[in-house]
Amino acid sequence: MKAPVLLAGSLSLFFALAGCNREPFFNEMCDIHFDNGEFVRVPVARTNEQIMWGLQKRADPRPGMLFIWDAPAKRYLWMKNTPSPLSAAWIGAEGLVLEVLDLTPGSLEKRGVDEVSVAALEVPAGYFGQKGVHKGSIVTRADCIASLAQRSTQPLNMSAKGDGNVE
């Protein structure tokens, strides 16, 4: 009588542990527009599971990922199990890019800013420099971030500079 119960318990534990190593589903996309006319379309990590997973185990991190937290706070990122070099921009509630930092593949060092942010955008290393996005740049619109949704009252010229793709 105990064998079936033990087997069922063992199988439940096996499947629970096996599920821990599977990438969560990222089904939300976001267009992030900057004050210099550039924009990028990236998947959004909003749930704890998505945020913890991030860009882990991806040899090609393009197009990047936007991490959005429930509440503004001082936030940090790390690169555990992330094989590609990335750059990250922390975004404040008013859309100000608080800082842009390069992140080292595989590093367990927490990187971030000592200011309150609502989101962080991770992209392949060098992307921000190529697109002219830096500390002090402004996110003019990002519908996926509540405080930045529908900010612009004038239509944005989508073809001004960026095409939304990370090359």
What does this structure look like?
The chain has helices at 2-19, 48-53, 127-131, and strands at 29-34, 39-45, 65-73, 76-77, 86-91, 97-103, 111-112, 117-124, 139-141. Strands 6-5-8-3-2-1-9 form a seven-stranded mixed sheet. A two-stranded antiparallel ribbon has the order 4-7. The chain has 167 residues and is of the alpha+beta class. Helix content is 17%, strand content 30%. The chain has a single domain, classed as Jelly Rolls, CATH 2.60.120.1140. The chain has three helices and nine strands; from the N terminus they run H-E-E-H-E-E-E-E-E-E-H-E. Strand 5 (86-91) and strand 6 form a beta hairpin. The model is unreliable at 3-19 and 152-167 (pLDDT under 50).
Average residue pLDDT: 79
CATH first level? Mainly Beta
The N- to C-terminal Cα distance equals: 60 Å
Low-confidence stretches at least 5 residues in length (pLDDT < 50)? 3-19, 152-167
Q: Report strand %.
A: 25-35%
Number of domains: 1
Secondary-structure element string: HEEHEEEEEEHE
The number of helical elements comes to: 3
Alpha-carbon Rg, integer:
19 Å
Counting DSSP E segments of at least 2 residues, the number of strands comes to: 9
CATH overall fold name: Jelly Rolls
CATH superfamily: Protein of unknown function DUF192
Helical residue percent band: 10-25%
Short recap of the structure:
The chain has helices spanning 2-19, 48-53, 127-131, and strands spanning 29-34, 39-45, 65-73, 76-77, 86-91, 97-103, 111-112, 117-124, 139-141. The protein is an alpha+beta fold. It has one domain: Sandwich (Jelly Rolls), CATH 2.60.120.
